[in-house]
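Running log. JK asked me to keep both predictions on one page so they can be read side by side. First protein, sequence followed by its tokens:
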Amino acid sequence: MTSEFKFLAVRNWEKYQQTRPHHEKWIRSYVNKENDVEFQKLTLYQRAILDGIQRIRGELGKNIPNDVGFVERRLQVIPTERMRVGYAIRTLIERCFLVPTNQQLGFTEEIREEEIIEISPSRSIRTKQPQQNQPPEQQELLSEDKPPTIDRAKVFNSILEATFEYFRKRIDRTPQYTLTPLRKKQALARLAELWPQLQEPKEQNAIDVLKGLVDELAADDFHMGRDPKTKGKAYCDWEYIFRSPEKFQHWLQLYSGKAA
């Protein structure tokens, strides 16, 4: 969970729902939500948690606390299901259905899709003030008052294009395997986390590191399906490197250990 933020806002809530600061008995629900590509990628459990959080938001009349236990209690999740709530909420944040914020009453800034895809780290949605104790490079990425320059966005996109092309060849993927908006968003978030740690020339060093992570994946017998335990099934999608900070750190540690 993004503990630096006190609340969770439902994306585009104020655009489609009542915004009066009191309890609501009813909320609007889009009947064709299943046609949304990102919604289709959610499990039924994650969809149920999202629907439940939307109902809580309507009942409270304000953004909900960024607290897994609070969600569990309000939705009366049975004990055997509670262990999955935290992961479901993290997934909803990473896929931008929920927006971490320190604003309790509303989230008036509308987040454009291109901003989410191009520059916004999935676990650090931009707020009105830069996060404290962040390196200058990452504050530039996260600050609303000082958005990233076009050059920085171009550099990041160039790095990802080079890395993805290397990934596709190294992991033996067909041209039909593309850098989808979700894959790009995940990788941009991880690159934003990595960027302050890189030495100059940062662009080339970033490419070298990300290609090194791809090499680590390609060398892993389990993920590539060479381990007898996998019975030939491979776990080598792009997401296995970039989908979360934890996964990314895992591959970075492997790469750093060998690079050292």
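And the second, directly underneath as requested:
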Amino acid sequence: MARTDNRQLGLPLPLPPALGRADFMPSACNALALRLISEPSGFPDGRLILHGPEGSGKTHLAAIWAEERGARWLEPMRLADELPALLASTEPQRFVLDAAEQIAGSIAEEALFHLINHLAATRGAILLTARAPAHGWGVRLADLASRLEASTHVGLGPPDDTLVIALLVKLFADRQIEVSPELIVWLSRRIERSFAAARRVVDVLDAEALRLRRPVSRALAEEVLAELPQTRETLPASRPEEKGAAWSCGAERLNRALAKRTFSP
């Protein structure tokens, strides 16, 4: 288990996730969203709402777009306070509003309504992320609800098995934990096929390895999965060629990720 010295001593060392384009894992469940944020002509009407479950890549996609288009991040609960400064510019501006559903029922609703109108007038753009489509946010301001629901929506679906493998690779690499390809495949076949389940099992394995001063191994993973709910029933053993095909994507990503991040400060 390769880590920095501080993590080997069990000291807390939060590691930010890698959110660049090279770190993103393309798949059928996110292909449309990735295409839209990469479109040189921008979003239809300058608005895009990415929605999906926790860990589905909404914030990662927003970070790619923000980095490449020079967009500024806004916080939902500070939007009303920042609005006068945002409206002062007549130049095209680009913004990201992460967890946008938090505005529902607050004074931020009116602020977002005015910001959307201002961006339309100045040819700006805004990317919003949320766990659900806009009609499920509970927005009370009718004019804002109408504009949000008319915005382009792209949902991020559940991961397929190959993406679960790649996601596990990335989550371990973000934490600077070196694991074997065999363990990644073994885990992918036993956890629920969801972003949240992959994140949960890596978080628990990381915490237990630090607490017990043990490497992240098959033995530790078996102990952890025995205590976690919603694990998948063990699947039939795959043929060697199937296992190789499933792992090919993950192995390449693991090698790149560890090369870039295992020994990062």
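Observation for JK regarding the second prediction: Strands lie at 47-51, 72-74, 94-97, 125-130, 152-155.
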